[in-house]
Amino acid sequence: MKLTLKIWRQKDSKAKGEFKTYPLEGVEGDMSFLEMLDVLNEGLINKGEEPVVFDHDCREGICGTCSLQINGEPHGPDRLITTCQLHMRMFNDGDTIVIEPFRAKAFPVIKDLVVDRSSFDRIQQAGGFISVNTSGNTIDANAIPVNKHDADESFNSATCIGCGACVAACKNASAMLFTSAKVSQFALLPQGRIEATERVLNMVAQMDKEGFGNCSNTGACEIECPKGISLENIARMNREYLKASIKG
């Protein structure tokens, strides 16, 4: 395939960025999107030009670092996949592909297509943990009865990889889906109930402090999420927050 790539180039967070156009030939349908970018960068390096900077790690849909806005969609036109799992057969010969970083105030651009998502780390640090009794009177976790439905729902919430697609898809750049998934992961289990009040209040407060917007109620976050995290988590977090607020 022959493609035209319009890629956002930005030297750093303070520089003014712009789109630059790159023609690319010899793209195979079986290539992943990141492999296509590798080919582009190899050509740029051979010509003495600076390669396009983009984030990646496992390339197996696990880590969530390969977050790109492709033709206006987080992770591209396919569903329930990360950018590294997107294959070029989803595009046609002669297509123009627009590639941008995720856009959000809380995700400042580091360079080109790479953004700083450490705001997610700080939200998790605010309450995404449980205290474990290590005094010698510990209880085997396998000995604690957990409702099968609750265990499944907790596991489904825990599959969130923190890629930020929910934020990029939301017109308010809301992190409600991410935060609610982390709250639900513990709220559904007895081990997480001890700190439930403190957890939801602290995580929501940190989310607001980072500059994320409010939920837009459009549901775009669930549609674009590569792990299919449900909007039910937002409703659960709202209930947890209301209960915690009443408790004081």
Automatic annotation (TrEMBL):
InterPro entries: 2Fe-2S_ferredoxin-like_sf, 2Fe-2S_ferredoxin-type, 2Fe2S_fd_BS, 4Fe4S_Fe-S-bd, Beta-grasp_dom_sf, Helical_ferredxn, SDH/FRD_Iron-Sulfur, Succ_DH/fum_Rdtase_N. PROSITE patterns: 2FE2S_FER_1, 2FE2S_FER_2, 4FE4S_FER_2. Residues 1-103 form the 2Fe-2S ferredoxin-type domain. Gene3D superfamilies: 3.10.20.30, Alpha-helical ferredoxin. Residues 151-181 form the 4Fe-4S ferredoxin-type domain. Its cofactor is [2Fe-2S] cluster; [3Fe-4S] cluster. It comes from the Bacteria. Belongs to the succinate dehydrogenase/fumarate reductase iron-sulfur protein family. This is Succinate dehydrogenase/fumarate reductase iron-sulfur subunit.
